[in-house]
Design a protein that fits this description.
There is one protein chain. The chain is of the alpha/beta class and about 500 residues long. The chain folds into 2 domains: about 15-215, 3-Layer(aba) Sandwich (Rossmann fold), CATH 3.40.50.720; about 235-480, N-(1-d-carboxylethyl)-l-norvaline Dehydrogenase, domain 2 (Orthogonal Bundle). The chain contains 20 helices and 10 strands. The protein has helices at about 40, 55-70, 85-90, 105-110, 120-130, 145-155, 170-180, 205-215, 225-235, 240-255, 260-290, 295-325, 325-340, 350-360, 370-390, 395-420, 420-425, 430-455, 465-470, 475-480; strands at about 15-20, 25-30, 45-50, 75-80, 100, 110-115, 140, 160-170, 190-200, 220. A 10-stranded mixed beta sheet has the order 1-2-10-9-8-7-6-3-4-5, with helices on both faces. Helix 11 crosses helix 20 (about 475-480). The longest helix is centred in the middle third of the chain and has 31 residues, at about 260-290. It is globular.
């Protein structure tokens, strides 16, 4: 499938072009020196209503308030009786000054409504939300899940309003943490994609770009809401969360079976992925990781990569088809209906995660192992996701962010600090469900198919996947994208 051709016009911000794998894409550079342009971007917007206080809602409300500094009113809207009200008050949003209110009252009073409640709540409440929107308002989404749900229902977004998306390429905690780091280091922040689904007023693009820059995005690139939700849901079920979960679970058992202690097995699996592998890929790309290995390590990497890539390609294609067809959205909705009776438990009590608690206590960051098998397996699955997205026609900026940059610059640092189990147990319900559903599939196929192929020492591995990896255009894409990464690394306490 040909890659999507996208472009946009802005008179408030400077549009720049980058060329990724021969395709030109437009981006907008952020930074605190652009904050004085936000009133122009939000012309006609007197009040921004941020609906919800989950990870994204809390981060975005605070970033918008701080960036706008009173030039546009930012109000948080929560459901009556919400347990998040105290947390919002603690962050400085109060009923007394009108910056905290009941969600439908806030929606009705706002010119720009950022709907950041959970996917399940959006499905449940969207009719009431649409009815409460004032004519000519702008509806903002940070995920295309609702659009995917409406598509499969044969329903549409409300007429007479702008509909835009701004999707930070990281979890809410990263959106806030890097914004705060940016107070001392300009350029710190999480990159974002933006989309314009409906432009009734003619101001939708400027408002979307203003929203992204106010969140602290160093760079903002264009996508569509449909492309975003398909790539986002696929990515979080594959290499961003479900895939990495299955990879490290299977590798940990493999290393234990080979005689490593619990701590050493954890070091060579989880710590290796979230530490030296992620840090190297973040700065030097996948090919930089490969070049860091010596000749003998590259031979091991090649065998592991050739064994893992077909597994990753098969599973990522299956996940993509399930998402694009609407099956995965239906699965999430049905699971949400069961949660009252069958709540999700935590996964952090198994031996591997208990070993991680011990391993993190005396971890020497400078001497963590860079295991060639682990690197080959992880890169094989990551490249399989990249190739799936290329085949499906996604723009390279989205592919790089959803397959590599979000992992290495946002999610994996949190996993490194607190464990993969922490991430699986503390992200959105949609992502948690996806990880629990697909991580065992990665674990199973790697264990049953990839590792036996890797261990067939008398067999000559297929060199085709490795040669394709070495010559892949994604390396030049990542080299260019590395120039657009945050100016500082995410610090996780």
């Amino acid at each position: 499938m040909a890659q999507q051709e996208l472009d946009f016009e802005t008179t408030v911000f400077e549009k720049e072009y980058i060329t990724l794998a021969g395709r030109r894409e437009a981006i907008v550079r952020g930074g605190r020196d652009r904050f004085d342009r936000l009133p122009d971007a939000f012309a006609g917007i007197g009040q921004i209503g941020v609906i919800g206080w989950g990870p994204q809602g809390s981060a975005q409300a605070q970033n918008l308030r701080d960036s706008l500094a009173g030039r546009v009113r930012v109000v948080v809207g929560l459901r009556a009786g919400s347990g998040s009200r105290e947390a919002a008050r603690a962050a400085g949003f109060r009923e007394q000054d009108g910056t905290l209110g009941e969600m439908f009252e806030v929606i009705a009073a706002s010119d720009l409504v950022l709907l950041l409640i959970s996917d399940a709540a959006q499905v449940e409440l969207h009719d009431r939300v649409f009815a409460a929107l004032r004519p000519g308002a702008t509806l903002g989404l940070s995920h295309g899940f609702l659009l995917g749900y409406l598509d499969q229902q044969g329903a549409t977004l409300p007429a007479g309003v702008d509909v835009i998306g701004v999707c930070p390429k990281g979890m809410g905690a990263s959106v806030r943490a890097l914004y705060l780091q940016g107070q001392d280091t300009d350029g710190a922040g999480i990159n974002a994609s933006f989309a314009v689904e409906q432009d009734v007023t003619g101001r939708a693009t400027e408002r979307a770009l203003g929203w992204a820059i106010a969140l602290g995005a160093p760079f903002t690139f264009q996508t569509t809401l449909r492309s975003e939700y398909v790539s986002d849901l696929t990515g979080e079920r594959a290499i961003l969360l479900g895939g990495v979960h299955g990879i490290v679970e299977s590798l940990y058992r493999r290393f234990r079976d080979q005689g490593l202690s619990e701590t050493d097995a954890y070091r060579h699996s989880v710590d290796c992925v979230t530490g030296p592998i992620s840090r190297t890929v973040s700065k030097d790309g996948l090919i930089g990781l490969y070049r860091r290995l010596d000749d003998s390590q590259q031979e091991v990497f090649d065998r592991a990569y050739a064994a893992a890539y077909p597994v990753g390609l098969e599973l990522t294609h299956e996940i993509y088809d399930e998402v694009a067809s609407g099956n995965e959205i239906r699965s999430v909705i049905l699971a949400g209906e069961r949660l009252g009776r069958f709540p999700m438990g935590k996964i952090d009590r198994s031996p591997m995660w208990r070993a991680g608690e011990v391993a993190r206590q005396d971890r020497d960051e400078e001497n963590l192992p860079l295991d060639a098998v682990t690197a080959g397996i992880f890169c094989g699955v990551m490249m399989a996701q990249i190739d799936t997205f290329i085949e499906k026609g996604h723009p390279y900026s989205e592919i790089a962010n959803e397959s590599v940059i979000e992992a290495t610059d946002s999610l994996n640092p949190y996993m490194h600090a607190r464990g993969v189990a922490f991430m699986v147990d503390n992200c959105s319900t949609t992502a948690r469900l996806g990880s629990r559903k697909w991580a065992p599939r990665f674990d199973y196929l790697l264990t049953q198919v990839a590792y036996p192929a890797l261990d067939e020492v008398t067999a000559t591995p297929d060199s085709t996947p490795v040669k394709a990896f070495q010559d892949h255009p994604i390396h030049e894409v990542l080299r260019q994208c590395a120039q657009l990464r945050p100016s500082v690394d995410l610090f996780v306490q």
